Write a sequence for this structure.
């Protein structure tokens, strides 16, 4: 009986596209959880403000529609219903929590944009850069949850809004244009430039985080003194 010939192995389902998806998932895991989600968990009230305002706007629009409908139909019921619901929505709007301002909301939006950008270019960035970005995101979450000096706070916010996205975008655009290792000079590549930018930002951010931690430690010591005075 003739020996069976070895059967050719079937390629990975989907071919290159499947491999790209797998690589992207691996890079996302290395990059850690989305920064926007971490910020929302640290400040749950902030994530509700946009939804609350959206619902209030809908309630006011429905109230106006009821009043118009009642006026056209000469129905006092719909006029009173629209007026009443509109007044309730107005009271809710005027008494809404004001702890979150547009500046804080913009931070979450910028973080969402950063997360989307990192997902989009997950397979384009060097693994070392993705690992460093994961470390930076952890430090950013801690710094943004604290109360650093104004200059340091602005730097941390600009890292989310501009510095990290721009560095990654410029690198990805250049790599897409050349599709090979890019030599910027005789001894430096585009990978070197991207990593150097991330290291510079991480160094500054680490210093800011040390200030935030020192401030928290000082508050703990002051509270300990306060408790001792009560004994």
């Amino acid at each position: 009986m003739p020996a069976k010939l070895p059967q050719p192995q079937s390629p990975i389902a989907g071919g290159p596209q499947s491999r790209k998806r797998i690589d992207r998932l691996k890079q996302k895991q290395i990059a850690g959880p989305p920064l926007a989600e971490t910020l929302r968990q640290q400040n749950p009230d902030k994530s509700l403000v946009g939804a609350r305002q959206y619902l209030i706007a809908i309630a006011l629009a429905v109230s106006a529609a009821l009043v118009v409908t009642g006026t056209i139909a000469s129905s006092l019921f719909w006029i009173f219903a629209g007026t009443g619901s509109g007044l309730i929505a107005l009271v809710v709007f005027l008494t809404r929590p004001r702890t979150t301002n547009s500046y804080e909301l913009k931070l979450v939006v910028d973080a969402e944009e950063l997360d989307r950008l990192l997902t989009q270019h997950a397979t384009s960035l060097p693994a070392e850069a993705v690992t460093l970005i994961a470390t930076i995101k952890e430090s950013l979450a801690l710094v943004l949850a604290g109360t650093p000096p104004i200059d340091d706070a602005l730097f941390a916010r600009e890292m989310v809004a501009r510095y990290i996205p721009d560095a990654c975008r410029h690198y990805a655009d250049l790599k897409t244009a050349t599709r090979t290792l890019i030599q910027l000079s005789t001894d430096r590549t585009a990978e070197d430039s991207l990593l150097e930018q991330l290291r510079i930002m991480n160094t500054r951010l680490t210093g800011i985080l040390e200030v935030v931690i020192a401030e928290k430690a000082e508050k703990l010591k002051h509270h300990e003194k306060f408790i001792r005075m009560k004994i």
